[in-house]
Amino acid sequence: MTHYDVVVLGAGSGNTVIDKSFAGLSVAIVERGPFGGTCLNRGCIPSKMLIRPADVVDAAADGPRLGARTSADGADWDAVRDRVFGRLDEVSADGRACRESLPGVDLLSGTARFTGPRALSVELHDGATVELTADQVVLATGSRPVVPDIDGLDQVEHHTSDDVMRLETFPRRIGVVGGGYIGAELAHVFAAYGATVTQVESGEALISNQDHDISQTFTRIVSQRWDVRLGTSLERVSRAAGGTVMHLDDGSEVEVDALLLAIGRRPNGDLLDLDRAGVETDDTGRILVDEHQRTSAEGVWALGDASSPEPLKHVANQDARVVKHNLLHPDDLRVSDHRFVPNAVFASPQVAAVGLTEAEAREQGLDLAVARHEYGDTAFGWALEADDRHGEAAGYLVKLLADRATGRLVGAHLLGPQASLLVQPLIQAMSFDQPVADLARGQYWIHPALTEVVENALLALAGELAG
Ligand SMILES: Cc1cc2nc3c(=O)[nH]c(=O)nc-3n(C[C@H](O)[C@H](O)[C@H](O)COP(=O)(O)OP(=O)(O)OC[C@H]3O[C@@H](n4cnc5c(N)ncnc54)[C@H](O)[C@@H]3O)c2cc1C
Ligand SMILES: NC(=O)c1ccc[n+]([C@@H]2O[C@H](COP(=O)([O-])OP(=O)(O)OC[C@H]3O[C@@H](n4cnc5c(N)ncnc54)[C@H](O)[C@@H]3O)[C@@H](O)[C@H]2O)c1
What we know:
It is an enzyme of class 1 (oxidoreductase). By secondary structure, the chain is an alpha/beta fold. It has helices spanning 37-42, 44-66, 77-101, 161-164, 181-193, 212-223, 313-328, 358-363, 379-385, 419-422, 424-431, 436-441, 452-466, and strands spanning 2-9, 27-31, 105-116, 119-124, 129-139, 143-145, 173-177, 196-201, 227-230, 234-240, 243-248, 253-256, 258-261, 265-267, 300-302, 343-345, 351-355, 368-374, 397-403, 408-415. Helices cover 31% and strands 25% of the residues. The strands form 5 sheets. A 5-stranded mixed beta barrel has the order 1-2-3-4-5. It has a 5-stranded antiparallel beta sheet with strand order 16-17-20-19-18, with helices on both faces. Helix 2 packs antiparallel against helix 3 and helix 2 (44-66) packs across helix 5. The radius of gyration is 24 Å and the shape is globular.
């Protein structure tokens, strides 16, 4: 039995908890998979590195609308994949080597489970088992893809985001089940690269966690690029000579070369024997934490996807900073700030949001001011408008919501090029409690930058609030 001051489970965001401030303390980090966790190895970073070439292909396809002599012919999957993982696998291996070289921190490669309060058993990859106890335990064990219970699935090859980005062969036809973040982003990738994509979503719109106007517009735009089946479920799958047949509940059948399941993720806490440690979860398996990231068990902390209702990397990073501080300063605990958590979908078009949707704000009974401004009604928007390869108004927009009682933003929703960047001043305004009127008029907005679409939406909102 080895005793440590601190044991961290999970070397994703958990790895960032431990730095030189822990010198003098004995620390173990336990990791069962590749060093760096989901974001680096199979999440945010490889997906965005795959999205960049997809955006380039789309831009090249749009060139002729602008008068540019460009054309697009998909992408070379092997080259793209090898560029992405050639780099990321090296970053992961370097991270592991760097961590292993640091004194005072033991990196254990294996799977941990609780055997009692702050007592753990780790099954190492080399077959040995070690028993640990610790004064403090940090649960940074993340989440994993949900695989639905579908008839015939055990008979066919299928993928999740864990492995689809590393496919050996590019699928000419791909079925994407789920129209959330992963389904939206990866359908964009495969469609731009030249695959025939069939996307099956049980709900009535794609990215339905977004404001209604945004998810509707997004669904309309991408439905022109690939086959989107809304209100539809995958009933069963079967093998065919050329691939896999998706049998949908509307009676139709679609044959594909690859099947991607992207219907959500679940926290990994259920694999930790948390009850032995006195760590409580909610009924979705999320570890319950207080505002300081403390679990129900003394000396046990949790962060990121293991405990967050918003399983996003910037949340995990923020949680990790709070846990780090609180481990080192037990008499001066910091509070996790989850008030204004933004999100972005890096599809084409991009989507970004912070705060309440209009439906949520109305449900809360707020006296709401709403303003919209379309990209196409700003100078830079005219330059982009040809981006709409279907000849309709692109529908790119900024939609803002404010509470008339306070004059403050309560929600911001953007759809269009660079939405993930354009949203940042709005996140800042909400975080620092800036009034809409000051934000709109109290600073210069560069002309004719795309940020003018945000400025104009804010001016319209300020007008609404004043009127
Ligand atoms: C395809 C995809 C794209 C994404 N894109 C974005 C994005 O663009 N922006 C964004 O903000 N978020 C994105 N996310 C979400 C983001 O990746 C996660 O929110 C983030 O990585 C969570 O970090 P974490 O440290 O909580 O968990 P992880 O990074 O998953 O780390 C948990 C680690 O714990 C290890 N582990 C689990 N159980 C045990 C055990 N019992 N013993 C030992 N080790 C264990 C796991 O192997 C893993 O390495 C994406 C996710 C996916 C899947
Ligand atoms: N850009 C980003 O920040 C980013 C990108 C990728 C992933 N992520 C993270 O990963 C998490 C998981 O992403 P995800 O896309 O798997 O989940 P999700 O929750 O975003 O979307 C799942 C979708 O699948 C649909 N669905 C559920 N069951 C279905 C079924 N049986 N048939 C058809 N459709 C079904 C749901 O209605 C929903 O639209 C996200 O919640 C997010 O936290 C973030």
